[in-house]
Specification:
single chain, alpha/beta, Oxidized Rhodanese, domain 1, two-stranded antiparallel sheet, 4 helices, 33% helix, globular
Length: 114
């Protein structure tokens, strides 16, 4: 199943599919949280280490930063750093917890409607 992330993109479209490889989710939470659970295909780049890891991130992909929840500012901070480095970056619309709810709903629909 292709993973869909809801991201604001300024054009009214709000979904970025990971299946095409053009979009890379960046988990900017602490590494222990990434190790526990993450968006499939995401790379770990804690916001506290992001400046040191910019060179390791691909320059040819859209980067989608996500963090803990609606009151967490890590993703916004990461997007600012990524854009300052010339990267195409956006934040996940919502947060990791919202993605988990969406993922669960997608799996339930797939089980009912093959």
């Amino acid at each position: 199943m292709a993973v869909t992330l809801a991201v604001p993109d300024g054009s009214g479209r709000r979904a970025a599919r990971l299946a095409d490889g053009a979009t890379l989710p960046i988990d900017v939470r602490p590494a222990a949280e990434y190790d526990h659970r993450r968006v499939p295909g995401a790379v770990s780049a804690p916001v506290s280490d992001l400046a040191d890891r910019l060179g390791a991130l691909p320059a040819d992909r859209d980067l989608i930063a996500y963090c803990r929840g609606p009151h967490c500012t890590y993703a916004c901070e990461a997007v600012g750093m990524l854009r300052a480095d010339g990267r195409r970056a956006r934040r996940l619309d919502g947060c990791f917890l919202a993605w988990r709810v969406c993922e669960s709903e997608q799996r339930q629909r797939a089980a009912v409607c093959p």
